[in-house]
Amino acid sequence: MFRLPFHDGWTVGPKLGAFETLNGAAPTRPVTLPHDAIRDLERSAESEQGVHTGYHPGGVFEYAKTIDVPEEWRDKTVAVEFEGVYRDAVVFVNGDFVVHEPNGYAAFTAVLDPFLRYGEPNRITVEAKAHKDSRWYSGAGMYRPVHLLVADPVHFALNGLRVTTPDIDADGAVIAVASEVVNDTRHTRTVRVTWSIVGPGGIEVAGGSAPVTVLPGATATARARFAVSTPELWHPDHPSLYRLRAVAVDTDGAEIDTDAATFGIRRLQLDARHGLRINGDVVKLRGACVHHDNGPLGAVTIDAAEDRRVRLLKDAGFNALRSAHNPMSRAMLDACDRHGVLVMDELTDVWTRSKTAFDGSATFSRRWQDDIAGLVAKDFNHPSVVLYSIGNEILELASPVGATWSRRLAEGIRALDDTRFVTNGINGIIANLDQMAAAMADATAADPNTMMADMGEQMALMNASTLVTESTEESAAVLDIVGFNYADSRYELDAELFPHRVIVGSETFPAKIDVMWGLVTRLPHVIGDFTWTGWDYLGEAGIGRVDYTDVEGYEPTGTTGPHPYLLAECGDLDITGFRRTISYYREIVFGLRGDPYLAVHRPQHHGRPTAVTPWSWDDTLATWTWDVPPGSPIVVDVYADADEVELLLDGVSIGVGAVGVEKAFRARFAMDYRQGELVAVARRGGTEVGRHALRTATGDPRLVARAETSDVEVDGLGFIRITLEDESGVVVNDADRVVTVKVDGPGTLAGIGTGRARTEEPFAGPSVTTYDGRALAIVRPTGPGTIIVAVEAPGLEPATVSVNVATPSR
């Protein structure tokens, strides 16, 4: 079988019915896959999808591509593999229906053989729609990779190569391999499958072969077990990977197909006394929830973007990701394998009760088995995957019927993969909305801003109620690990009520990480915490914003950010990959950073009243460059794992503050702003344990463009960081400019953006206003060569950077 990217030569346009005309709709245009059909549509406060999608509209779209089908393909089987089409994908060949896939996150295959016209052009069309079917920005269209598959009638099944490691000890490991072989001929065929296993060092460590006879129209599985001496085990701290290759040959020795998979050797253990153990070591999950979009790229999934997200999240201190609330992309799973990041992969956001008008609940009861099979098939060989989540905040979970569904889904996963653990993101309040209605009405009767500030405490109280305990017991009992959303009030309670229960904080408020991590480290049955969220995302717009309430016309809007809010504004990292101040606070709480960290409140807003949500963090920056008069009042926070912090400005002490007076791991100072060097010195027991310094930028700002890497592959991406800096590299955050990007050479501008949550600037560019002195441009190669990226801004010298593009080495 050859499996080739099928990304070029497509067009996209509005899907028209048989009796419709364009009537002003956008015309058909050429695109390269993966592609998001929603990203560049005009946003509006009147969008029916509203805050959920960041005020993007929905739509129905048609992709089309014409391919020449050679005569020699008559004796082959031809298919197109889609890793994800959002949503309700319908595939046609030459106008004939081939397949329908309602799940926008499920991979599926369209077998083209019955519909092809050989020796002539064939037209493939794919329809997709997105409209009021998601609680976050989903994007639309063929947003994940697509591949053309051409195989002999006898071939390896797609996703049919599976590896397990059933026995591992200090001396060796047993590797069990299985290869499914498909026979699409009218005759019985016998083939020999040969496997070879290559270790992390590139040396073959085991191998062998076995014959397999396959009846006509059937599939048969060839199996073998191999012993590997002194294996290098996969672990988040040292993610060693092995490579398995399978070759099928006919009776005359002719090669008919090949297959390959990457895997890791690791042992999982779980109990309430030790928690989660990997290879015998207790591992606490420093987790982040992540949505599937890629910021300025929209929903587009490209390997380089997924790898970058995983790498930067791990650099920020996370060792686990929860894919919220849908199956993770293959590319991100590969990246998690490489970088040693554990995965909770989630099946769905809904079961049979809907959360939005046109979500997947209507068809879930008919397709749940297919969805589970697709999830497991995608994840099976990935050592990073340790948890399957069967849902998120399911509405019917606390009912007897919901408990039946819980058991059905959990057992459905175990029937296909019993090597991992099953969880569910349970929110006892959401599961008991009818019974909670009166209590929630009382809470919301108060001032809306006060209600939002107290929401976390109210949720904790209600989640710890007897109602939640009793109504969720059966659904929780079917799980290996009980996932709780915003229910840390249950952690110690459940240790008494259910002494064998293992818990994970599947979703928690970001500002409570000091409390959360204290519980995780103190309670062995609590295996980790997943903050909402690790990386900011599109949609659920403004859920983590900070409002200044003295603005004329201000009206409380709760968790809803009014138009033109685009981003949630609640990630540790913003959509460009820039770490916000909360990220460094979390790193200190995790015990991964010894030095303190300076976070400065914007002096322009000093003393103004604010309204926040439980997902908000302080409106702070790590900078000492402010366009305010000397002597302006300013508040400085210092995050530190220490007893006290001394603050110095140009060597003169501003004062000493105790850490943890108002909030753990934080000292707060009120002072006057003056330019210079601000230094925080942290001490424990009178001894210095670390320091952090900020220096005021001097002189006029310069425009700087830096490529994160100067060499990329032709199917990769170039990430260009754009900053306003002084001569010594200090970012000038208080002098934002409109920057314009021009790309010359074999590449295009794939997206440009900043971390600004409230904006009307499009990601398509070519211009954007920097946010706190920063922006990110993403360049997509169109072929090998050198791409020149030029950046301009009014009143500043242009900046240029080059990116060398090579053909893929793999």
TrEMBL record:
Example of a GO MF term: hydrolase activity
Q: Which residues form the Glycoside hydrolase family domain?
A: 705-801
Q: Which residues form the Glycoside hydrolase family 2 catalytic domain?
A: 276-447
Mind telling me which SUPFAM superfamilies this protein's record contains? (Trans)glycosidases (SSF51445), beta-Galactosidase/glucuronidase domain (SSF49303), Galactose-binding domain-like (SSF49785)
Q: Which residues form the Glycosyl hydrolases family 2 sugar binding domain?
A: 62-149
* Highest taxon of source: Bacteria
Which positions fall inside the DUF4982 domain? 631-689
Q: Which InterPro entries match?
A: Beta-gal/glucu_dom_sf, DUF4982, Galactose-bd-like_sf, GH, GH2_Domain-Containing, Glyco_hydro2_dom5, Glyco_hydro_2, Glyco_hydro_2_cat
Q: Where is the Glycoside hydrolase family 2 immunoglobulin-like beta-sandwich domain?
A: 164-266
Keyword annotations from UniProtKB, A to Z:
Glycosidase, Hydrolase
Asked if Hydrolase is a keyword of the record, the answer is yes
Gene3D superfamilies from the UniProt entry: Galactose-binding domain-like, Glycosidases, Immunoglobulins
Indicate the family of this protein. Belongs to the glycosyl hydrolase 2 family.
Listed name of the protein: Glycoside hydrolase family 2 TIM barrel-domain containing protein
The species this protein belongs to is Microbacterium pumilum
